[in-house]
C-alpha cells in the first residue's frame, strides 16, 4: 500500500513527462537484474562508481543487451571501497557523471521490476540522483533474491535454525559458479541466475533442503 501511494505521489511530482514510461504497467514476464558499486557505504555521502543491468525475459538472461557504465563520482573514493570493487581514482576520472549516465539507465530498465541482492541499497543510491533530476523515487517493483532464497530454504524452518544469506553461500547452494564479486556485471549476472533458479523452484513448489546448521560472521538465528 505504501509503495502504491508513493507511486501516485511521484507520478504527480514527475518533473519531466518524457519519463512517464517509468509509471506504465510492467512488461510481461521481463525483469532487470541491477547492481551498483559505490565510492563508499554511506548512501548520503558516497556515490555510484559503476552500474550493470541485465534484462531477463522468462528464464533467459539477455546478456548481449546488457547495460554497463563506469561513473565519475562526486565524492572522493574511500580506500575501504577501493579494496572491495578495485576501481581506483584514475579508473573513474574520465568517466561520465551520473547526471549523464542516469537517463540511459532509466531508458534501459523502463518500468520493469528490478532484481538484485540487497537491491534496496542499490535503489536508495540511485534515488538520490533521481530525486535531484526528476523529483521522484524509482517506482519499479523490487525483487530481492535473498528474500526469494530465504522463503525457499528457511520459510518453514523451526526456531533457532541458523540462517545464511551471504551472496557466496546462495551461489554455492544453488550450484552456480562463483564469479569474482564486487564487479557490477558479475554481481548482476549472479543475481539474475539466482532469480531464474529460485523463480522456477517457487513455481514448482520445490524447497531447498537444509543439510544442517552453518556458521559464519553473517549468519543470523531464526526467531
Q: What order do the helices and strands come in, and which of them pair?
A:
Elements: H1 2-13, E1 30-38, E2 48-57, E3 60-61, E4 67-72, H2 79-85, H3 89-92, E5 96-97, H4 98-109, E6 114-116, H5 119-134, E7 142-144, H6 145-154, E8 162-164, H7 167-173, H8 184-204, E9 219-221
Q: What is the approximate shape?
A: globular
CATH architecture of the largest domain: 2-Layer Sandwich
Biggest beta-sheet profile: 7 strands, mixed
Provide the CATH topology of the largest domain.
Nucleotidyltransferase, domain 5
Short characterization:
The protein is of the alpha/beta class and 223 residues long. The chain has helices spanning 2-13, 79-85, 89-92, 98-109, 119-134, 145-154, 167-173, 184-204; strands at residues 30-38, 48-57, 60-61, 67-72, 96-97, 114-116, 142-144, 162-164, 219-221.
Amino acid at each position: 500500500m505504501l509503495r502504491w501511494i508513493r507511486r501516485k505521489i511521484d507520478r504527480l511530482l514527475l518533473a519531466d513527462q518524457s519519463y512517464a514510461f517509468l509509471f506504465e504497467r510492467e512488461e510481461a514476464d521481463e525483469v532487470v537484474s541491477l547492481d551498483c558499486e559505490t565510492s563508499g557505504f554511506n548512501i548520503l555521502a558516497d556515490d555510484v562508481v559503476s552500474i550493470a543491468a541485465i534484462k531477463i525475459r522468462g528464464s533467459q538472461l539477455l546478456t548481449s543487451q546488457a547495460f554497463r557504465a563506469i561513473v565519475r563520482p562526486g565524492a572522493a573514493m574511500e580506500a575501504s571501497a577501493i579494496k572491495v570493487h578495485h576501481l581506483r581514482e584514475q579508473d573513474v576520472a574520465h568517466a561520465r557523471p551520473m547526471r549523464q549516465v542516469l537517463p540511459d539507465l532509466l531508458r534501459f530498465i523502463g518500468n520493469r521490476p528490478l532484481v538484485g541482492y540487497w537491491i534496496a541499497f542499490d535503489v536508495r543510491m540511485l534515488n538520490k540522483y533521481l530525486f535531484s533530476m526528476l523529483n521522484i523515487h524509482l517506482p519499479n517493483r523490487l525483487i530481492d533474491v535473498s528474500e526469494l532464497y530465504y522463503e525457499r530454504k528457511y520459510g518453514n524452518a523451526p526456531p533457532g535454525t541458523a540462517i545464511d544469506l551471504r551472496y557466496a553461500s546462495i551461489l554455492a547452494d544453488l550450484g552456480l559458479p562463483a564469479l569474482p564479486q564486487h564487479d557490477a556485471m558479475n554481481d548482476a549476472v549472479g543475481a539474475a541466475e539466482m532469480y531464474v533458479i529460485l523463480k522456477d523452484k517457487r513455481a514448482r513448489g520445490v524447497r531447498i533442503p537444509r543439510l544442517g546448521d552453518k556458521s559464519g560472521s553473517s549468519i543470523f538465528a531464526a526467531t
